[in-house]
């Protein structure tokens, strides 16, 4: 084995070595966690995460996060302290604290009771736990003792009596390491947590790119790749929610990494609130990544004896490019995140009333739309906004939010008998009856509502500053237990009043005039309590998250809701980009995607019904958003076939591995392949966007197949996996917006 200290770099400037003691960390491979009291190893199928205790300082120093390494590894040899950067600023640190010579961004900043922000966390002890404990009040990945093991490292700052526990869980099958931190004040006076990153990692590579997902309302999840430069670069959300502006996801990749080749690290924060992602390339050339709370919205007072727990951050590693990184995250999230029984099956094709009826609702037009839904083979009818409000009827977006009682003019006998009429409808060519779902936006209130009349103090506000309305509404303060209880009761009452088996939970604005910075996280804890209580109480309900489209597309929501409306932009061409972008971090099973009417409400574009259907069925939550009666006959006639195809591919979309073959930003022929986990079936989606006159048809080369095996293509020709991957298939698609779905069966 190699001795890293061999050449003790002898320049006159070297004052002392950071680790005169240890030249090698010992470990053993095979077990998911190996800890010998001075060094720690987390071993996945093809990832190693290693760190050790610096026994002169008690600091935790990172050794490796990447492809598998052997049990014994050479430790890093460090220049002595010459210049201004202290010893702690020259090393790779697991939990960088502040104020003692590491001038990079810290993972924690504590304002001590005396006012200074210096901390010194030192190793105290550690525990290894089979499985993974739940995270107090927060969503978290889960697994049995066979799936996951946890290492907890206890750190202590003896100068201020503050404890920090770092929890590392490893899912060896998924090459995923999940970290969270909790901080406990053991002192006698209040302290303030000014910043806290869930994950902080220093990677030794100097030439890296970072990839993030940026956007805005109706143009979510655009992939952004840029070079990591010296200094700090980052993004985040200060909207109060994870937001469509930036997703709480980061990839770091080698500058040469592509979609299918090269090293990629993916980081995904399991949190729905404001967040911060920072990447800092320091003077020594290391790249530090920090993901966690947004420091501008924390300032968390921690009284003696109390604990603040950070959200958790998932990290995965792949040598198979950005696609490999995505598939690792997808598998982890498909199998270890969502609690709902609908996570992996039974997503009925739905028809939502919004784009068909809007606010213009009455029992007869809703019933007629539901009847048409059943006739074309939809299995779930969803009544969107506009059904509620008594004193302030919700007939437009100006009033009624907060008053979760059926509008008595629209439903004189309440919801129950009306819903019964709908759930008695037989789905065409099926033994099933139509299911009924409903829309709610419980975290919001219109000032024109009975709720606001009675509880104006329940809306977020800051002193006497005016309460800024967005879409005529204010945000309820879910940090207040009475607000949480009100929402739990209001939504429970609706669900108990009729046979409702689906809920679309919307949330249509960000937070302004927040009572205090800490209210942001207190709100999240309250919101998760509400989500947890309701989804546990109504396990047979299929819940779909929504926030002006993809304004809260994050793993925190996915713990409770198996699907999220991906974007209010339903233009099928733009949806290819949005859904492929979203798939960087999230599995297709999580995406709500609908075939909507043309010309498209957002873009005015007209795209053929088959293309619209094919794009929508690449999402686990397939549906329609239109009034079939308003459609041209031919389009309407195509709907039963498209719904049937969506049901056929659904198991592959929900459970399969996704291969992004051609990206829409790079190719006029975007293509996606879903392969079942057992490799027996696959569904290939191919699109042709802009007409290409007098031009050869490209070969779409498949990936991820078994090269030796044979596959029957659409029940016809049989080719080997090698042929399909190395030569590929041609699709003679003509004109603009042409598409095809092809099924493959392994022979
Ligand atoms: C530090 O590590 C060295 C080498 O492993 C060992 O000899 C020494 O006893 C350690 N010191 C302490 C204080 O544990
Ligand atoms: C802090 O985290 C550790 C590790 O998960 C856990 O054992 C401990 O109970 C946590 N403390 C609190 C107060 O939640
Ligand atoms: C400590 O914090 C608690 C909770 O925020 C607060 O009620 C209390 O007044 C604070 N104590 C001091 C001495 O500031
Ligand atoms: C229901 O609304 C439709 C417009 O969507 C209208 O034509 C119809 O007359 C209304 N029916 C009743 C009973 O109000
Ligand atoms: C039901 O079956 C008939 C006959 O095969 C077919 O024409 C019709 O399109 C089917 N409808 C649905 C909704 O599948």
TrEMBL record:
Keywords annotated in UniProt: Glycoprotein, Glycosidase, Hydrolase, Magnesium, NAD, Signal
Chain residues that bind substrate: 217, 384-385, 471, 504-508, 546, 568
Active-site residues, Swiss-Prot/TrEMBL: 506 (nucleophile), 568 (proton donor)
Record field: catalytic activity: Hydrolysis of terminal, non-reducing alpha-D-galactose residues in alpha-D-galactosides, including galactose oligosaccharides, galactomannans and galactolipids
Domain Glycosyl hydrolase family 36 N-terminal intervals: 87-302
SUPFAM superfamilies: (Trans)glycosidases
EC number: 3.2.1.22
Domain of life the protein comes from: Eukaryota
GO molecular function terms attached to this record: alpha-galactosidase activity
Enzyme class: hydrolase
Keyword field contains Mitochondrion: no
Cofactor: NAD(+); Mg(2+)
InterPro entries: Aldolase_TIM, Alpga-gal_N_sf, Alpha-glycosidase_related, GH, Glyco_hydro_36, Glyco_hydro_36_C, Glyco_hydro_36_N, Glyco_hydro_b
GO biological process: carbohydrate catabolic process
Domain Glycosyl hydrolase family 36 C-terminal: 669-744
Keyword Magnesium: yes
Signal peptide: 1-25
The protein's role, per its UniProt record: Hydrolyzes a variety of simple alpha-D-galactoside as well as more complex molecules such as oligosaccharides and polysaccharides.
Family of the protein in this entry: Belongs to the glycosyl hydrolase 36 family.
Subunit: Homotetramer.
Protein name: Alpha-galactosidase
Organism of derivation: Penicillium bovifimosum
């Amino acid at each position: 084995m190699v001795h890293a200290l061999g050449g003790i770099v002898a320049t006159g400037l070297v004052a002392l070595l950071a680790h005169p003691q240890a030249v090698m960390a010992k470990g053993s491979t095979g077990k998911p966690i190996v800890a010998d009291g001075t060094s720690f190893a987390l071993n996945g199928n093809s990832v190693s995460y290693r760190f050790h205790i610096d026994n002169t300082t008690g600091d935790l120093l990172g050794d490796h996060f990447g492809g598998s390494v052997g049990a014994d590894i050479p430790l890093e040899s460090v220049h002595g302290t010459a210049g201004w950067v202290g010893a702690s600023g020259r090393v790779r640190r697991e939990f960088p604290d502040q104020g003692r010579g590491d001038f990079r961004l810290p993972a924690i900043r504590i304002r001590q009771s005396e006012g200074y922000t210096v901390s010194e966390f030192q190793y105290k002890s550690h525990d290894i736990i089979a499985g993974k404990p739940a995270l107090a009040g927060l969503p978290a990945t889960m697994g049995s003792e066979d799936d996951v093991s946890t290492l907890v490292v206890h750190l202590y700052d003896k100068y201020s009596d503050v404890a920090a526990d770092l929890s590392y869980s490893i899912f060896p099958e998924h090459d995923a390491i999940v970290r969270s931190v909790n901080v406990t004040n053991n002192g006698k006076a209040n302290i303030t947590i000014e910043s806290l990153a869930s994950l902080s990692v220093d990677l030794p590579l100097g030439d890296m790119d970072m990839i993030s997902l940026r956007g805005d309302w109706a143009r979510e999840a655009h992939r952004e790749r840029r070079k990591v430069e010296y200094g700090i670069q980052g993004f985040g959300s200060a909207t109060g929610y994870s937001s469509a502006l930036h997703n709480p996801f980061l990839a770091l990749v080698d500058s040469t990494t592509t979609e299918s080749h090269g090293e990629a690290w993916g980081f995904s924060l399991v949190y729905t609130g404001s967040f911060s992602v920072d990447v800092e390339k320091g003077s020594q050339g290391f790249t530090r990544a920090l993901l966690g709370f947004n420091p501008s919205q924390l300032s968390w007072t921690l009284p003696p004896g109390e604990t603040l727990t950070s959200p958790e951050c998932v990290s995965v590693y792949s040598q198979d490019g950005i696609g490999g990184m995505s598939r690792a995250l997808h598998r982890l999230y498909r199998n270890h995140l969502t609690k709902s029984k609908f996570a992996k099956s039974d997503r009925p094709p739905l028809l939502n009333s919004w784009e068909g009826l809007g606010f213009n609702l009455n029992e007869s037009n809703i019933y007629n739309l539901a009847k048409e839904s059943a006739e074309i083979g939809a299995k779930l009818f969803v009544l969107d906004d506009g059904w509620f409000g008594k004193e302030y009827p919700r007939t437009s977006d100006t009033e009624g939010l907060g008053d979760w009682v059926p509008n008595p003019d629209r439903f004189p006998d309440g919801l129950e008998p009306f819903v019964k009429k709908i759930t008695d409808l037989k789905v065409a060519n099926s033994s099933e009856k139509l299911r009924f779902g409903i829309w709610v936006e419980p975290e919001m209130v219109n000032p024109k509502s009975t709720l606001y009349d009675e509880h104006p103090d329940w809306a977020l506000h800051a002193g006497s500053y005016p309460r800024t309305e967005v879409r005529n509404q204010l945000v309820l303060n879910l940090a207040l237990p009475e607000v949480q209880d009100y929402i739990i009761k209001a939504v429970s009452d609706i669900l108990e009043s009729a046979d409702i088996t689906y809920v679309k939970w919307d949330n249509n604005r960000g937070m302004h005039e927040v009572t205090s910075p800490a209210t942001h996280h207190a709100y999240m804890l309250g919101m998760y309590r509400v989500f947890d209580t309701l989804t546990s109480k109504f396990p047979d309900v299929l819940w779909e998250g929504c926030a002006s489209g993809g304004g809260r597309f994050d793993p925190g929501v996915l713990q409770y809701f198996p699907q999220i409306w991906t974007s209010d932009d339903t233009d099928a061409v733009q949806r290819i980009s949005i859904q492929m972008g979203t798939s960087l971090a999230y599995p297709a099973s999580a995406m709500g995607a609908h075939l909507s009417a043309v010309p498209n409400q957002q873009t005015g574009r007209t795209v053929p019904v088959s293309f619209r259907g094919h794009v929508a069925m690449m999402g686990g939550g397939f549906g329609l958003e239109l009034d079939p009666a308003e459609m041209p006959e031919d389009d309407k006639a195509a709907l039963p076939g498209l719904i049937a195809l969506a049901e056929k591919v659904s198991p592959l979309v929900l459970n399969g591995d996704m291969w992004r073959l051609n990206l829409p930003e790079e190719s006029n022929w975007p293509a996606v392949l879903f392969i079942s986990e057992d490799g027996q079936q696959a569904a290939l989606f191919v699109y042709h966007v802009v007409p290409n006159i007098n031009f050869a048809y490209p070969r779409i080369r498949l990936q991820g197949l078994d090269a030796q095996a044979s596959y029957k293509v659409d029940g016809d020709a049989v080719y080997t996996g090698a042929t399909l991957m190395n030569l590929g298939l041609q699709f003679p698609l003509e004109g603009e917006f042409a598409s095809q779905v092809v099924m493959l069966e392994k022979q």
